[in-house]
Write a structure and sequence with these properties.
By secondary structure, the chain is mainly α. It is 74% helix and 0% strand.
């Protein structure tokens, strides 16, 4: 049965009618701490004259900028591995769990003995996507969609092995990747609206996206009946 985008969004709206305040808090924390699922990028603008003449001061500036960029990238990536990714699993836990009137689920990944399994699984997922993207963009995008359900699977059962979770996500999205892509496209206008006022409106719109994707997870999970909520 094809994914019914209207039904998913209607279910998301029904959820938000009762839980919008806490959902907004959860999403706002993620947007502030983790950003909108993007890496922090540092761009250095070099003085063309200095580069052409290979001046000593320009060389020192280049080395300093290179070292600073490398250190910044390492720090940000470590934060992504050990803080940002687990927080995103906590967000998935909130939208798929049953404790809707609390922000406690946001820190779900840090509170149990499965923290390192969550960290390891998401690290492996990110590495696979990164390596695929290095060779060709399209395989990287395909992997992103294959592993779209990993956060939700970890949110429901963090005891599963990394390979099991990755394979489950691939099975759940098999034959569904284009439909999920169309679901993403259906939010383009909303994301455009959210970009106004310096992105401030996104804080109020993001819960709608996340609630809809949680409904997508429920539908894909129930189709295959893979997992019992824990």
């Amino acid at each position: 049965m094809p994914i019914n985008r209207i039904r998913l969004k209607d279910n998301a709206k029904d959820f938000l009618r009762s839980h919008y305040i806490f959902a907004t808090i959860i999403c706002a924390v993620i947007l502030i701490v983790c950003g909108n699922d993007t890496f922090l990028s540092i761009r250095f603008d070099w003085n063309t004259t200095q580069v052409i003449h290979f001046s000593f001061s320009g060389f020192l500036l280049f080395i300093t900028g290179l070292v600073f960029s490398l250190i910044t990238w390492i720090v940000v990536y470590l934060l992504r591995i050990f803080v940002f990714n687990p927080l995103i699993v906590g967000k998935a836990r909130y939208f798929t769990g049953d404790n809707y009137d609390s922000v406690g689920d946001l820190f779900y990944a840090f509170s149990g003995r499965h923290y390192f399994n969550i960290v390891k699984t998401l690290f492996v997922r990110d590495i696979i996507v990164f390596v695929c993207t290095l060779f060709f963009i399209i395989p990287g995008i395909i992997k992103l969609y294959q592993y779209r359900m990993v956060d939700y699977l970890l949110a429901e059962d963090p005891t599963m092995d990394t390979s099991e979770i990755l394979n489950l996500s691939k099975e759940m999205t098999m034959g569904r990747k284009m439909e999920i892509f169309y679901l993403d496209l259906s939010f383009i206008l909303w994301r455009f609206v959210g970009s106004f006022l310096g992105g401030l409106l996104l804080f109020f719109i993001q819960p709608y996206f996340d609630a809809t994707y949680a409904q997508l997870y429920f539908e894909l999970r129930d189709e295959r009946d893979y997992i019992t909520y824990k």
